[in-house]
Amino acid sequence: MHVSMATSPGRANRRNEDFVGAVPGAVVLLDGAGIPGAESLCRHGVAWYTHRLGGALLGRLSPDDGRDLATVLATAIDEIAAAHRHTCDIADPSSPQATVVLARVHRGRLDYLLLADSYLVLDQAHGGPQVITDEREVIARRDCSVPLSGVARDTPEYDRIRASCASALRARRNRPGGYWIAKDDPHAAREAVTGSRSLADLFGIALLSNGASRIVDPYGRTDWPGVLALLAAHGPAGVIRAVREAEAEADPDGQVPDDATVAYWTHLPR
């Protein structure tokens, strides 16, 4: 197997809240969710959470025992929750959380799991790339943002409604009918998007955080076949470089950039 990885903080003066890592036979990518003002809820912070959860996942995937990926994730979520339950308000909707992408090869198959809005791209031997993501957060965000329609930006009314929309979205986290994310409740792992593919059908796979997927949407610099071509030519760093160029053009003052992380796994075992 060959795994290449790259990650970049959205701002130079802020910790990268993404995590990416690999062990023989598995890759893990997490996109930490930072909520402004949540420092009073958890003294550790989002980067601590993603790095601890990512390390716990890699440790559980390393034995290559074929355990169900949802079970692996649930156990890891429970472990990290126990590590700061007594010092932090981890039940609050704004406490540290993360999206998850897990990919593992086992007995001739690629098993995968996704929770929230990161991406897995399968480079298929036939039929072009298959793009897999968990769309429930995007749907919940769209629903919660309906009251903003037609309201003028940069007005007190807009700010008030936007704050209300953000609260409504947080209330949908890890709730039936809302969306699911790695946080304090191991049950969320059972709600993940999962699947399995024969390795014979695949040339490779790519894992992208939400910040890296912006190269396709909203920036439209390329499509998903183009992402795979860019990865083949310039690796994960090339994708992130293209994202940063698009961000700079969209907002020269640098207020938009997000952490961006990519893993590219080729030479899959057969």
- β-strand amount: 25-35%
Number of helices: 6
Terminal Cα span: 10 Å
- What's the name of the CATH homologous superfamily of the largest domain? PPM-type phosphatase domain
Count all strands and give the number: 10
Order of helices and strands: EEEHHEEEEHHEEHHE
What structural class do the secondary elements suggest? alpha+beta
Strand line-up of the largest beta sheet:
1-10-9-6-7
The CATH architecture designation of the largest domain is 4-Layer Sandwich
Described by the principal axes of the CA atoms, the overall outline is: globular
**What's the overall average pLDDT, rounded?**
93
Poorly predicted spans: none
According to CATH, the fold-level topology of the largest domain is: Phosphatase 2c, domain 1
CATH hierarchy, class of the largest domain: Alpha Beta
Computed Rg: 18 Å
> Tell me about the biggest sheet?
5 strands, antiparallel
Fraction of helical residues: 25-40%
Q: Provide the domain count.
A: 2
Written overview of the protein:
The structure is a single chain. The protein is an alpha+beta fold and 270 residues long. The protein has two domains: 2-134 and 180-266, Phosphatase 2c, domain 1, CATH 3.60.40.10; 136-178. It is built from six helices and ten strands, in the order E-E-E-H-H-E-E-E-E-H-H-E-E-H-H-E. It has helices at residues 46-61, 69-84, 136-144, 156-171, 210-213, 224-250; strands at residues 2-8, 18-23, 26-33, 97-106, 109-115, 119-124, 130-133, 193-198, 202-208, 260-266. Strands 1-10-9-6-7 form a five-stranded antiparallel beta sheet. It has a five-stranded antiparallel beta sheet with strand order 2-3-4-5-8, covered by helices on one side. A hairpin with a 5-residue loop joins strand 6 (119-124) and strand 7 (130-133). Helix 1 packs across helix 2. The longest helix is centred in the C-terminal third of the chain and has 27 residues, at 224-250.
